[in-house]
């Protein structure tokens, strides 16, 4: 049997593409989600991938589901921290609730998911942790003080853990997607999409979730053992423009 891989937010968008790609590469994949049962059920049936509902902002829920997965399938050797949300507002209008929701899922979620699997990875001498951050954590974005802060935090978290895991066979890397064609983008008005987004992406299009997924599959593989603490940009050149 292949290694066990857990993908948070693995039932829609980028995470669904990651879960499918890892399954295609031979991993035993479990996909997590927060509340959209219909999407999760459809994803699970279409791809024959088990799904579980828990909130990554809860340490207790993460610990309980990871323990159950390890009991069912064996040790989690690949963890993809992909679950993420936006609660955009200009800072002068941002509420504490918007700040805390984004921090809870996008930053605390990484601690909550990684801490329960870390000791086992250290003991076995192997682990792959791949964190999905964002270009907006690298460069900041208007209306996203919460999201940019959390996503920048993901990068710092990955680098510190990469150092701690290096002698234990654990690699920790971050992927920073640019704009990817998912439900998260569906909330953006067409005029903003054309004038403020596509106009600034040198390749002239959104990325596809599968383009991030292929990167994850490589980072999870034995071939990527020398890559750790990296921040990989996948943004169609946007960061250069
Ligand atoms: P989607 O909105 O399409 O899907 C989000 C997934 O995360 C869903 O499966 C959702 O579950 C799950 N989720 C959300 N909150 C929680 C939570 N608290 N606990 C557990 N699961 C949760 O997102 P994308 O695919 O667009 O984004 C995936 C990641 O990539 C995110 O971290 C995002 O910030 C990042 N990213 C996305 C970009 C883009 O252009 N799309 C650009 C750069 C980064 P449910 O279906 O139940 O709601």
Structure write-up:
By secondary structure, this protein is an alpha/beta fold. It has one domain (4-240): NAD(P)-binding Rossmann-like Domain (Rossmann fold, 3-Layer(aba) Sandwich). Helix content is 49%, strand content 15%. The chain is built from nine helices and seven strands. Strands 3-2-1-4-5-6-7 form a seven-stranded parallel β-sheet, with helices on both faces. The structure holds NADPH dihydro-nicotinamide-adenine-dinucleotide phosphate. NADPH dihydro-nicotinamide-adenine-dinucleotide phosphate is lined by residues 8-9, 11-15, 32-36, 39, 55-57, 82-85, 105, 132, 134, 177, 179-180, 182-185.
Strand content: 15-25%
Main beta sheet strand tally, sense and closure: 7 strands, parallel
Count of individual helical segments:
9
The 3D shape can be described as globular
Would you tell me the structural class of the helices and strands?
Answer: alpha/beta
Number of strands: 7
Query: Which runs of at least 5 residues are low in confidence (pLDDT < 50)?
Result: none
Report the average pLDDT across residues: 97
Bound molecules: NADPH dihydro-nicotinamide-adenine-dinucleotide phosphate
What is the top-level CATH class? Alpha Beta
Largest beta sheet: strand ordering: 3-2-1-4-5-6-7
The CATH architecture category equals 3-Layer(aba) Sandwich
Question: How many independent structural domains?
Answer: 1
């Amino acid at each position: 049997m292949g290694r066990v891989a857990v993908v948070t937010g693995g039932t829609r968008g980028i995470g669904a593409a990651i879960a499918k790609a890892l399954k295609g590469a031979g991993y035993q994949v479990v996909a997590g989600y927060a509340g959209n049962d219909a999407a999760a059920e459809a994803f699970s049936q279409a791809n024959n991938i088990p799904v579980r509902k828990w909130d990554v902002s809860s340490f207790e829920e993460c610990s309980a589901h990871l323990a159950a997965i390890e009991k069912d399938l064996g040790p989690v050797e690949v963890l993809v921290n992909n679950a993420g949300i936006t609660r955009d507002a200009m800072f002068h209008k941002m509420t504490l609730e918007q700040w805390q929701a984004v921090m809870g899922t996008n930053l605390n979620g990484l601690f909550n998911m990684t801490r329960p699997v870390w000791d086992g990875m250290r003991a076995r001498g192997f682990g792959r942790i791949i964190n999905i951050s964002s270009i907006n954590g690298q460069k900041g974005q208007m209306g996203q003080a919460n999201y940019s802060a959390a996503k920048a935090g993901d990068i710092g978290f990955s680098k510190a853990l990469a150092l701690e895991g290096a002698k234990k066979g654990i690699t920790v890397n971050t992927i920073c997607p640019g704009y990817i064609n998912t439900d998260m983008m569906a909330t953006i008005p067409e005029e903003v999409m054309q004038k403020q987004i596509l106009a600034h992406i040198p390749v002239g299009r959104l990325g596809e979730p599968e383009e991030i997924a292929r990167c994850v599959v490589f980072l999870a593989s034995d071939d990527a053992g020398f890559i750790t603490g990296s921040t990989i940009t996948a943004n169609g050149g946007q960061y250069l423009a």
